[in-house]
Amino acid sequence: MKRVFIMLMLFAAFSLSAQAGLINSFANIDFDSDGVTTPGPFKGFDAPDAPEIAGWTNYRNGAPGPLNDAGVEGPGAWWSPYETNAGFMAEDDAAYTMSTYTIQAGDVYTISFYACEWDWNNNLAGEWTATLFYDTPANVIGSCIQGVAGWWTPYSDATGISATAASVGGTLGILMTNTGAGIVQIDEIAVNVVPEPATMFLLGLGSLALLRRRKS
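Given the sequence above, the corresponding structure tokens read:
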């Protein structure tokens, strides 16, 4: 019984460890790897005299290509990014980054980020659409749409996005698109896997066995 208990706990711990590592498997998801120098020039996405953002690929109007008005700048900028570096995009601009995570059957993903809107006229409707996909942005798993109002507000998708049958075995990616009006900024993007029910069951079973051993 003791050996079975140990195996159950190790399996559950391994599963949770793999899921917890998802957030760190994306390439430069928080834009911090570029070491932006302030003042400018802007660092990518569209800056003609600056390198592209490490780990990100431009994807405007459903295809790779130049963006309209987008980039990354550091904490010395006038808009005071949430942390070290933050990205911004104009209407219809989009870019994606890939993880090294292999999608598993039963996965449910949650997305969170900080965002703000540049609204000089106080009448724009900012909006980010975060789309999860496998292998290429054309292979959509699901999206969450978040209206953006105000200055550096945390947002999160409480519902979650479930892996599709077709996506299992593929590599997970995320596409960020400005689907609103005006320019919106973003930072601290995070994608996490909700622990599978089977994993939680194993942890619960292990905990119950441990309590019984202590009582006896």
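The mean pLDDT is 76. Try to locate this feature in the token string yourself.
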